[in-house]
Design goal:
This protein has about 180 residues and is of the alpha+beta class. Helices cover about 25% and strands about 25% of the residues. The chain has an eight-stranded mixed sheet with strand order 3-2-1-8-4-5-6-7, covered by helices on one side. A hairpin with a 7-residue loop joins strand 4 and strand 5. The longest helix is centred in the N-terminal third of the chain and has 18 residues.
Length: about 180
Amino acid sequence: MEFKSCRPWLRSAALSLALLGAALLAPAPEARSDELTAADHVVVRKAERKLYLYRGEELLGAYRIALGLNPVGHKERENDYKTPEGHYTLAQRNTRSSYFLSILVSYPNAEDMRRAHQRGWSTGGSIMIHGLPNAPSHSVQYYETTDWTNGCIALSNSDMVEVWMRTPENTPIDILP
């Protein structure tokens, strides 16, 4: 069967697997050639639904994102479906998540914990940058046009590969309103 004759969801799954294989076989961020410059800072602008990768002042890439189901405002507690706002780092990578690759954001920070503790709330956690679900329950169009996460930052699978490849561990990330 030729690739072009596959059903759209199957074609998407096959492409995702191919991209995952390329991401896993690629050298670590510190060992990259000059072709794929590593970012030293990530900026998310929630109102724009964009994630930006920077090296110094140079913009390396801009990517469309989806946010939590309740995207306006800062994440205050567990299950509020908001994407946090503030200064964090990219803390840990996971190739075996329920989504196509994932990178943990270091939410909650000390200020998030202080604020939630004052109100007697749990901060929640497991905020990630990730691709599409490995077992999608909606069409690709839904994921491309809707804020659908529980508070994470979601990208297309191909964009997730590029972000994965360009961001070393502990890269700072600023999530802005």
